[in-house]
Amino acid sequence: RDPFKVLVAEVLLQQTFARKVVGPYRELIKRYPTPAKLAHARVSELRKIIRPLGLIGRAQRLKQLGSELVTKYDSRVPKEQGGLLKLMGVGRYAASAVRCFAFGHEASILDANVVRVLNRVFGAGLRAPNASPSAAAWQAVESLPGFRWDRSRNLALLDFAAVTCTHYRPRCYACPVQRLCKFDDKNLVEPADAE
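Request: output the structure for the sequence above.
Response:
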């Protein structure tokens, strides 16, 4: 629940499978546990740590993020969406994740995986082009009546998407909401290289 650790994790998780992030994340936090230490890191050292993730441009973004936290926020992660969105490399998803997971605010956590679940289970018809949900998708999700976007529900939805309602080879036979689901797995097309 440490805001800095959640923020670093969210930056590393961008366009990357969670299982790949674990090792580099632990090494990064071990060596640079505070915004000040991250701000003073060498970009070349950050690149070495995150190289297994690809997208090594994140090394410069991480250093810049540390610097911004030190200079603009007295080494603290902002609690409000507006402040978070001003940080280098932080988009709507990451800002919402930090607000929810670190600060306990209700905030919808919407990524392509959550959109997939909402589309399959509820027939929501939301679009997530290029793995980034549209503004209309965010608006539709945030206006769901009676749904609380708290920490436990967001984590449950993310875990459900990762374990049961996967992109390829969903585990429909083990799905607890199978009776409600609108998804027809007969239409699922799996690429030859799917995991």
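The radius of gyration is 18 Å.
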